[in-house]
Queue: 2 jobs
Job 1
Amino acid sequence: MERKHWYEVGLDHVWLPYTQMKTAGPPLAVARTHGCRIVLADGRELIDGIASWWTSCHGYNHPHIRQAVERQLAEMPHVMLGGLVHEQPLTLARRLAALLPGDLDRVFFSESGSVAVEIAMKMAQQYWINRGERRKTKFIAFKGGYHGDTIGAMSVSDSDAGMHDTFRQLLPEHVIAELPRDTASADALKLVLARHAESIAALVVEPLVQGAGGMRFHDAATLTRLRAIADRCGALLIFDEIFTGFGRTGSMFACEGAGVVPDILTLSKALTGGTLPLAATVARRPVFDTFWSDDPAKALMHGPTYMGNALACAAANASLDLFEREPRLAQAKAISEQMTRELAACRALTGVKDVRVQGAIGVVEMHRIGDLRALRARFVEEGVFIRPFGAIIYLTPALTIEPQDLSRLTGAIVKVVGDLK
Ligand SMILES: *Cc1c(COP(=O)(O)O)cnc(C)c1O
């Protein structure tokens, strides 16, 4: 009798993300990774264009991160952060506070991006409650936005952009508005706010680039308008930098590039260089100050079990070392220039709606993609891992990718899009 492989026996029991398990066809089995390469169980090697949902910014298996995690594993993998503190999360909090602009200097850790967004929403809500303002319970978020898959995070995501329509009945209702890209849409947003002024706790936005909602870009002026509008109506401003943080848009953080400081900011994805799950919700000092009180009821009522996990924080500290020692932002700039040059050829191809690049994010937007599954398979045949969604084909490679590997990625896109009928 033929002995079954881990792959076959396990696939009968695992439930995969965003996947119709019946029709999806067999996923690719990965044996290992190195640099910008994914090595499949059958021996094929793919150049990675996605960096595992934008996490592995230094490439896979970076020795510096590995050593830091191994050292931490031998010393202490984890202790709870309730009543106990330890070095890695404290060091990481201090370093993030120093890196982030303005007085964004209080860091609350969790284990996933969605949870960091939930915490940001709870913080904003309780900020107002602690100030004696109980009516501010609503959020304004934006078309094309994506903030995660948990209930609160879904409720501030655009259901057209996300995959959340099924759950509409479950979600608290917030306001999804147009981004104030120009003065006309800014006026429209002011009207929305005027209608809801008393009830708005905060505005939530992915600064500069809306990622999972379609890789849509907006400019710094849009964020300046949001800051002004939030201030005028007495609402907090939350930047979700889970995708844009750590060099992806060309500066260390999008807020820095845009010159706008939010009141609360979320981080995850590339925080640990793609090695361990970790997220952070960072508050400005005036936000934290409303929780600082003799009244125990004014404390922030949240505490994930694995909060401040020592292994994950050690990985994140090592990742920050790499940002300090190695020219990541210069690499992001070089990637940006190369993608701009090499993806330009797509503009002339049939079916292409737009080609755009911001930082180390390259996007070819199609009018429509008929068969996503076939398209994904075509890329694998070309020896690359690129995962189009909706009508979007995009690249978010590791910031360490070599120019010739990046050319293989852009070349595959030009070729495969050119072959589409
Ligand atoms: C990925 C993402 C999230 C959700 O993070 P998870 O770790 O998947 O929960 C939230 N916001 C943005 C902007 C993201 O890109």
Job 2
Amino acid sequence: MNDNEPKPYDPATEGARMSFQGRMAYGDYLGLGDLLNAQHPLSDAHDEMLFIIQHQTSELWMKLALHEMAAARRAIAEGDLQPAFKMLSRVARIMEQLNDAWDVLRTMTPSEYTQFRDILGESSGFQSHQYRMIEFVAGNRNMAMIGPHEHRPDHARALRDEVAKPSLYDTVLARLAAEGFDVPARDRLDVAHQPDAAARAAWLAVYRDPARYWELYELAEKLVDFEDYFRRWRFNHVTTVERIIGFKRGSGGTSGVAYLRKMLEVVLFPDLWELRTEL
Ligand code: HEM
């Protein structure tokens, strides 16, 4: 190199640490050793890596969603609604992030998927305990859905423990009661929320006078937002599935697209959707 040639930029000149002997570096803090060594394709198919990483990243985002939902539920129970709003907004954004992620998976064609589908055996997102936990926390509880988790007693126990607690929506209903609305607690916590006349009447009062009940109004809209993004996730999933496997049965054993279409009918917070008709 002659003296006139520009020297390569060295970030050390600006104080960047360039050696991490005996220090905690980025990968140590983030546990990247485990994370980046957790992809184990079982075939030689090029697209299997995409399939694995797409599921793993989704599970990571679900982990964060559960973390936020649990904290939001605690905050709501304590009447501390402002921090809960922020957390619920974050959960909706996570759902949106997962919605965008389908664009990557959509680049995989049926021909590519069939190259490795058989090696998945019967494994399927149907057995995602975190997904089921998100539903259970929100309030869509169905004990039958614990079945595919019985082989993992820790996961099955966590789901059973969850249905013994008030759901996120139960906690919101308790908030309505604490604010003076006549909304009784549910007799059974281990079933999905059904439309409830007392709750709908309370929400109607809130939506008819937002200025008076601003915090409850905002809380309701945060839940609707969450459900709105969640519905989009389900829709994107079923469309992607149809595009990739058509009407074949799912690896988890369901009818596939027909099952997922049925799941599009799930309503997490029926009172909040029904009240709109009456306004
Ligand atoms: C090639 C891509 C995919 C295909 C063909 C596919 C297919 C299916 C099918 C057919 C089902 C119904 C259950 C069964 O019988 O297996 C299902 C359920 C499910 N999948 Fe996927 N899926 C794909 C990607 C994903 C991704 C990336 C995720 C993200 C985690 C995911 C999460 C889920 C979840 C959570 C369920 C359970 C839904 C419920 O029970 O309501 N799937 N999938």
